[in-house]
Specification:
The chain has 2 domains: 83 residues, Rossmann fold, CATH 3.40.50; 38 residues, no CATH class. The protein contains 7 helices and 2 strands; from the N terminus they run βααβααααα. α2 packs across α4, α3 packs across α4 and α6 runs antiparallel to α7. GO terms for molecular function: DNA binding; DNA strand exchange activity. InterPro entries: Resolv_N, Resolvase-like_N_sf. This is Resolvase, N terminal domain.
Length: 131
């Protein structure tokens, strides 16, 4: 049985995980082929120490690349949070439709208001949403 991976960094972004996956899959009789090079990675690791070293180095650099990306994204989120006060999470109605603020507030207040018998006035809200 054989599996194809686009590149080794797509198999795993951490070197230790990559190494364990290669050992595990080889033990199960599954060969891994690198689509970028066409090389049988499982055989390369078993037979050639130089190719094994290159594969290990690729794994180390994939892990480094992931760590740098995570750090860069964290800094960007923090910078956006400082600028806007919010960065992550679901966007609120005021973020997506600020020009409808007054109209939406009217709908929300109508939804919260109860009638004299304590029921919520659903029939009052429908025309506001449709209209």
């Amino acid at each position: 049985m054989a599996e194809i991976v686009e590149r080794l960094d797509r198999l795993a972004r951490e070197y230790m995980v990559q190494e364990q996956l290669l050992v595990y899959l080889a033990a199960k009789g599954i060969s891994i082929y690198n689509a970028a090079t066409g090389e049988n990675i499982t055989e390369a690791v078993k037979s050639d120490p130089m190719k094994k070293a290159v594969i290990q180095i690729q794994g180390v650099f994939a892990e480094l690349e992931k760590s740098l990306l995570v750090k860069r994204l964290a800094r960007a989120r923090e910078r956006k949070r400082v600028e806007n006060g919010k960065c992550e999470g679901k966007k609120g109605w005021n973020d997506t439709e600020p020009e409808r603020k007054a109209e939406i507030l009217k709908i929300v207040k109508a939804m919260r208001r109860k009638t004299r018998n304590g029921a919520r006035p659903c029939r009052v809200i429908k025309p506001l949403l449709i209209g």
